[in-house]
Amino acid sequence: MTRLAGCALALLLAAPCFAGDASGFDPAVIDRCLAKAPTQGARADCAGTGMEACLDYARGKYTGDDPDFPMANCLDASHQAWEAKLTGVYEAALEAQGERAAKPPEALRQVERNWLQFREALCNQARDAAAEGKGDLARARCIRDETARQVALLMALGDAE
């Protein structure tokens, strides 16, 4: 299967192939928001940044009959962008801890593993508690928001150095 055919199939299955491209979400909005946010709390508030523009774009492009598709598309694209940001911030935190022999990076790795389990459990709970038919959106929003909070937390570790 060619990449284009794979992307067409993924689009039909409501999974954007190129987050930031076909989805209408611009990952650069995350960097701009984080750069302006002076504190961990303000950085966590960046979770929903870029969603309005993405939704406007998605609503203009989507002609199907699923009213939740534009939101699902944008939440997925936003989450993918936050995951990419988390990877970079996490790797920088590991490197910084590795340079300080007193705090081995294994502790941070364990914290991150525990956080991933927490995020999954929390967001599964959000899905289960959502109104009927809205569970997947609630879970996707939770995953995106918790990932943004973790980025803010890891960035705050770097601020404290």
Automatic annotation (TrEMBL):
Keywords: Signal. Residues 69-151 form the Lysozyme inhibitor LprI-like N-terminal domain. Transmembrane segments: none annotated. The keyword Secreted does not apply. InterPro entries: LprI-like_N. Pfam families: LprI. Residues 1-19 form the signal peptide. This is Lysozyme inhibitor LprI family protein. It comes from Paracoccus simplex.
